User: Fold this.
Amino acid sequence: MSQFANTPEPPYYAVIFTSIKSHEDNGYEKMSKEILEILKNQEGFLGFEFAREEIGITVSYWKDLDSIKKWKNNPLHKQAQKLGKNLWYERYKIRIAKVEKEYEFIK
Amino acid sequence: MSQFANTPEPPYYAVIFTSIKSHEDNGYEKMSKEILEILKNQEGFLGFEFAREEIGITVSYWKDLDSIKKWKNNPLHKQAQKLGKNLWYERYKIRIAKVEKEYEFIK
Assistant:
């Protein structure tokens, strides 16, 4: 389940994670839930957005590069990164980007 | 159908378009195809990635801010923006971000 992230006024950072999953679950769903729980309390985490069809796109939003670096080195996240390469993903791409502007439309 | 965008070495720009669609099609599919065709030949366009579940996420990649501005003012795109507000979207958010780094993993 994913909705819009309520990000603050720019500038802030986005991590765009594009992935193609392997067909087997191999503990992915369980780990995703655990990761989400600790992510919520991570320093500098601003929110995330997610959707998957042929490819999965997860965009997480962060206060600054330092917060992204700390999250990269979080022990459970490091374990998930290892399992991701070994079991869950055929391919992925990570882009780190500085959000400069945002616009919103609500009907 | 969407796969990974083969973007060049950073820096370049990402436009993150997060949306919630209305239930009716109202010409959306037809316009999407037309827009994609002209988008491919747009100056400075580098590729795009798309997935939709509860929300839709389209990330398009661009050479620079000037290319994004030109695309924003393209006549067919302007028409689509208007129809988007009137017919297709309940809500959307656009974030313009400068990609500083990228990493790729391929099994």
User: Anything to note?
Assistant: The interface with chain B takes residues 1-5, 7, 10, 14, 16, 18, 20, 49-57, 59, 84-85, 89-107 of chain A (CB under 8 Å). Strands of chain A lie at 12-21, 45-52, 56-62, 89-106. The first strand of chain A starts at residue 12 and ends at 21.
